[in-house]
Amino acid sequence: MTCHLTLDEITRDAGRGRRVCFLPSELQEMVLNYGMTPKKALECYGTKFLTTAHTCRKLCLPMKDIMHGDDIHWYLVVILMDDKQVHILDSYPSNERQTPRKDAVQTMIGFLDALFEDLYLQ
Fold this sequence. Notes:
4 strands; about 120 residues; 4-stranded mixed sheet; cysteine-type peptidase activity; about 45% helix; Adenoviral Proteinase, Chain; alpha+beta; hydrolase
């Protein structure tokens, strides 16, 4: 997958009012491995990370993939909120790990969708 989103673009957009938001790196692990609910995420991270995330132009979520044994690979999911696009920035693409990574991203997108719905209903 080719992504045209650059670090320079992220930095440039950060000063335009609607900003780039970075979610905590452990959020993915808490959701995928421990079943964290949107309500619990709001309790744990709300004031620092999540209560304004839905107002961001770009939402960045670091994702961790445990590959073989203890080998860990990080990749970044960038969600363009206005365009409803998801980009996976992966410096180490792997045919073997492509499906588990996409499944993890889809699960997190569903989680964030439910979380933002909870925020709008408050």
